[in-house]
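hi!! sorry for the late reply, been swamped w classes. u asked for the two structures so here they r. pasted raw, havent cleaned anything up. first the sequence of the first protein and right below it the tokens
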Amino acid sequence: MRIELVTEGGFAAMPGLQRPFVLDCGSLPAAQAAECERLARALATAPPAAAAPAALRDARRYRLAFVLDERPHVVAATDQAMSAEFDQLVQLVRQYGRRVD
């Protein structure tokens, strides 16, 4: 499974730091690959996250895109409104993924 992480917004957004990360979960050691799939499955079956309050318009926004069981999924969250699974998958993609243009 391939996961793409796109980060947008924030108070002092810097375009160079917002290039997407891409992670091929198949390239990870078995334990991390299993965790990657577990987190993606949890996000794919979770109800949509609530929108962030308008007062948080400078919050960072994150979007994870992946294909699971031949179905595309796109899940989004903000700094102030993200599940533990979303945060864990973002951290995994940042740690093991690579930036792309």
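now the second protein. again sequence first, tokens right under
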Amino acid sequence: MAGVSTVNDRTEILSAQQNDDSFPTLWDELQWRGLIHVSTDAEALSELLEGDPFTYYCGFDPTAPSLHLGNLVQLLLLRRLQLKGHKPLGLVGGSTGLIGDPRPTAERTLNSADTVAEWVSRLQAQVSRFLSRDGDNAMRLVNNLDWTAPLSAIDFLREIGKHFRVGTMLKKDAVAARLNSDEGISYTEFSYQILQGFDFLELHRQYDCVLQSGGSDQWGNLTSGTDLIRKVEGTSAHAIGTPLITNADGTKFGKSEGNAIWLDPEMCSPYAFYQFWLNQADADVIARLKVFTFLSREEIEEYERQVAEEPFRRAAQKKLALEVTTLVHGPAAAQGAIDASEALFGRGDLGALDAASLGAAVRELATATGGAGSLIAQLMVDASLVKSLGEARRAIAQGGVYVNNVAVEAEDQELAVDDLLHGAFAVLRRGKKTLAGVVAA
């Protein structure tokens, strides 16, 4: 399974994207898609988006070696504005990444300069894949270490720090939450909003950048920049805060047992990525199509009808999974994920899957370790398909157990050499839908 799409794939994906011209303005479309939670003056922003090309940016801090789904919301917003003719800057924070924005409960672990520099390179490569690098409004990458590193602490305090009022800074939601916690907040993280404000000012000076986007939980940091530009330059700038994406039940989107859904295929395989989208609830899937795909309003409304009238077909989830997996990992990886998903449940040939696709699928299952000669009934117990050998033997006798979609015929049947596909993996199935994997010892 290809984890990273080719240059040609990326070009075709970007070329196929477009905004929906059924909306009077881009602002109207962004609101319909649920991408605007909070902003500076909405009327002025709507006019700005419909006017001459301007420069805008979003920042991504290298506090991990990959971007995640929350970042993808920002990347797609950047792309929608680029499709309108505006000029995106993708900022990867080589300096702010050394600090990290304040988390709600505790201080971040500070990473080494070498680690942050490596992550900067990785995130820059990811950002550049979602924005066009061609034309008059080609995407440009910037790194805030370029303008913060040369500044001395004294210069920073005199030129930038003097414009910030401590009382205002204390009222920011992220800071206030930490002040009221047992952990408190260090001056390091407290100063983050000054650094982000300085970024906007510097980009305004260098590129005439007039708009910054970010998550609504970053609103205090976003307005630090607009306020600083107003005080220092005497001009206005804008900010858009996108909503934090949550599930219909209010739980945070993109988290599974504390693990983010990463965009790097080495950290979240294309198969696991595809399954995440495929498993979206009916109550959530239409909102996901609006935010994470370039499907038109007409297309999405048709899927909304199908969810209401034929939910068992899960057509909207299949389309969502295909679209977003193709967007992030490319068409070959998306098709590989589909093939693996079908084959696992007996609707395709497991033996035809490449080793990477099969391995990624098996690793998402409960697994047992075994090899040629291992008792299949015992492997079922080890993989938690059943609770005991007796239960395993009864299931086999009833004809409901399969290895690689082939029925197991004898209670004492052992795993054969040929059962280990690619010499490494086998798939156990009990009934129609209960799966487990075997990984060669």
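hope this helps!! also noticed smth abt the second:
DSSP finds 20 helices and 13 strands in the chain.
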